[in-house]
Amino acid sequence: MNNKKIKILLAKPGLDGHDVGVKVLGHALVDAGFEIVYTGLRKTIVEIVKMAEEKQAGLIGLSILSGTHLELCKQMAEEMRNRGLTIPWIAGGNIPDKDVEAIKSIGALAAFPTGTTIEEVIEFCNKQAEKQKFGDIIPPSPL
């Protein structure tokens, strides 16, 4: 496996002010060989997408603890579509199991519900990096 992995932009959309979890995940992803860009707290979806484009991220991760995950994911899909971008994106945080499929149908490549381990996220990101390395990435198409 090539040691060069994708750049992941980790973002905290909305008014959510809790970022310990996303910072722990970011450090674990760095330890696993990924380049991480962290947006900081309270970013709009427009700011997140613009930063992902500017930083040439290979994957965007939304960390959402506020309970507004469905609305924020709809905004994400719309902003990506409006800009004509196909950067794959994922969502995780305080997400009930029952909302995972809805988030994916909105346009997320994956959704990680409450209780997902760091190891599971790293495994997913490793698989995603391999797909992108070989050009097999098929970005999700929102409904």
Helicity level? 40-55%
Strand order of the largest sheet: 2-1-3-4-5
**Total of DSSP H or I helical runs spanning 4+ residues:** 5
pLDDT < 50 runs, ≥5 residues? none
CATH superfamily: Cobalamin-binding domain
* Beta content: 15-25%
Q: What radius of gyration results from the CA coordinates?
A: 14 Å
**Mean pLDDT, all residues:** 92
Order of SSEs: EHEHEHEHEH
Describe the structure.
The chain has helices spanning 20-31, 45-55, 69-83, 100-106, 118-133, and strands at 7-11, 35-38, 59-64, 89-93, 110-112. The chain is of the alpha/beta class and 143 residues long. A 5-stranded parallel sheet has the order 2-1-3-4-5, sandwiched between helices.
Strand and helix map with partners:
Elements: E1 7-11, H1 20-31, E2 35-38, H2 45-55, E3 59-64, H3 69-83, E4 89-93, H4 100-106, E5 110-112, H5 118-133
What are the defining features of this structure?
alpha/beta; Rossmann fold; 5 strands
Question: Care to give the gist of this entry?
Answer:
The protein has helices at 20-31, 45-55, 69-83, 100-106, 118-133, and strands at 7-11, 35-38, 59-64, 89-93, 110-112. The protein has 143 residues and is α/β, with parallel strands linked by helices.
